[in-house]
Amino acid sequence: MRYAILVLVAAGLALGVFFLWPDPDQGDPTPTQAVTTTTTTEDPASTTSTGASETTTSTVESLVVTTVEEAEEILRELWFGWFEGIYNEDEERIREVVILDESVETAKESFGVEFQAAPKPADISFRATEVLRSDVECVAVWTTLVLTSFREGESSAVEVLRWTQDGWKRLSTWAFKDDLWEADCESSLRS
């Protein structure tokens, strides 16, 4: 569901930029001009067929992750996609959550690995999370990933996420907080 929302926001941003792009014959735009988009999202609490929806307005700045809870939710969705892709041996599912082809190949090497159960988002949690960097193109988060039920274990790392036309995706993982992860935020995206 959140993936669909991110896709709608990205599409809305693209349309907003297109329609708000200044006409060269009209001079420079005012520096306070903001690009806004309107998205409609399903109410997750609604389980009836009424399709309750809510319309919200967001700006480019709203893509900036401002809280640990937001960072953890994005990470949960990305890690769930990763483990779900491995569990179902679904390369396309992996591509939905990572940027680099090398990451897809790493996941494919894990195809066939036994899981104790099917992965669920509720089995993925985090602790000691710290947002190290957050802007409209890159989020870097230091956290301890904790897995339960489908796979037991935990590991701490810096997770570098980059904004793509499809939403946030994992670019890299660094073992230490003082590693060279900042270069991944500054680099141009490649596949």
Label this structure with key terms.
191 residues; alpha+beta; Nuclear Transport Factor 2, Chain: A; two-stranded antiparallel sheet; 29% strand; globular
Description:
The chain has 191 residues and is an alpha+beta fold. It folds into two domains: 2-63, no CATH class; 68-186, Nuclear Transport Factor 2, Chain: A, CATH 3.10.450. The chain is built from five helices and six strands. The protein has a four-stranded antiparallel sheet with strand order 3-4-5-6. A two-stranded antiparallel sheet has the order 1-2. Strand 4 and strand 5 (153-164) form a beta hairpin. The longest helix is centred in the middle third of the chain and has 20 residues, at 68-87. The chain is globular.
Portion in helices: 25-40%
From the 3D coordinates, which CATH architecture of the largest domain would you assign?
A: Roll
Strand order of the largest sheet: 3-4-5-6
Q: Give the CATH class of the largest domain.
A: Alpha Beta
- Mean pLDDT score: 76
Order of helices and strands: HEEHHHEEEEH
Q: What structural class do helix, strand and pairing data support?
A: alpha+beta
Determine the number of helices (DSSP H or I, runs of at least 4 residues).
5
Rounded to the nearest angstrom, the radius of gyration is 19 Å
Taking the alpha carbons of the first and last residues, their distance comes to 25 Å
Short recap of the structure:
The protein has 191 residues and is of the alpha+beta class.
Topology diagram in text:
Layout: H1 2-20, E1 36-42, E2 53-59, H2 68-87, H3 91-95, H4 101-109, E3 124-134, E4 138-147, E5 153-164, E6 167-174, H5 182-186
Antiparallel strand pairs: 1-2, 3-4, 4-5, 5-6
